Amino acid sequence: MRQGFLLSACAAVALALAGCENTDQAEVDRAVQDVIAGDESDLNAIMMTVADPDEAVAYFAKAAKEDPDRIALQRGLARSLIRAGRNTEAVQAWDKVVAHPDATDDDRVDHADALIRTGKWDQAETVLDAIPPTFESYKRYRLEAMIADSNREWDKADSFYETAVSLTTRPAGVLNNWGYSKLTRGDFDEAERLFVEAITFDPTLFTAKNNLVLARGAQRNYQLPVVEMTQTERAQLYHTLALSAIKQGDVETGRGLLKDAIDTHPQHFEAAVRALRALEGTVVN
């Protein structure tokens, strides 16, 4: 079907140009190629964003094999592998992309991202260090912050997180990461503030809500925060608070929170039920 559309479009362009007295064959050929390139560009964009990840991988793998010198196809394959969760293969694909003479600093940042996803932190750091400091992007600084975190270089991490936040209009994810960094350092007040800010930007970000509850629980504050949440989320957050309380020895509080989780959940909450049974069994024994 797509091939038929291409042929029809190309024929229409050729006929239209052929009707012009001063149009030579070279102009017709260039116009036809523009139509083909435009159609392929649109299809590539669709495959990289909304298509099924595995279908996108198959599409770009085939296209890149047929035309291995086109970096756009190699790049599409690498990004599709990331979307499909095939991170080890994605690293190999990004290796090919960054070896291409037309590779960009954005490609190198994506290469570092793939390396981090496979636990190759040192290699990712080396890749980022080789990128000129004049190249600034949200993703670059988010990755720099994560690497600084892994190295326990807290001042650098805070600086990179702050810069990353300033370079995006959708900072919820990086604010959540920054908050989790503060949480692991024991800076609970600052962690809470960052999680709340993340939720302000994205009220659907459950990870930040759960992390916020962890920060409160670490301070033995077992009250749910006043943030937007669904009934299911409320039950899950009660469950998180319960486990936090039990871990810190506040067993009776944990028992009550588990019961709240079970009563609140609109369906059967198996994890909370198991935890409560285990707790009661331990107490009885």
UniProtKB/TrEMBL annotation:
<dbReference type="Pfam" id="PF14559">
    <property type="entry name" value="TPR_19"/>
</dbReference>
<dbReference type="InterPro" id="IPR011990">
    <property type="entry name" value="TPR-like_helical_dom_sf"/>
</dbReference>
<feature type="repeat" description="TPR">
    <location>
        <begin position="172"/>
        <end position="205"/>
    </location>
</feature>
<dbReference type="InterPro" id="IPR019734">
    <property type="entry name" value="TPR_rpt"/>
</dbReference>
<protein>
    <submittedName>
        <fullName>Flp pilus assembly protein TadD</fullName>
    </submittedName>
</protein>
<keyword id="KW-0802">TPR repeat</keyword>
<feature type="signal peptide">
    <location>
        <begin position="1"/>
        <end position="26"/>
    </location>
</feature>
<keyword id="KW-0732">Signal</keyword>
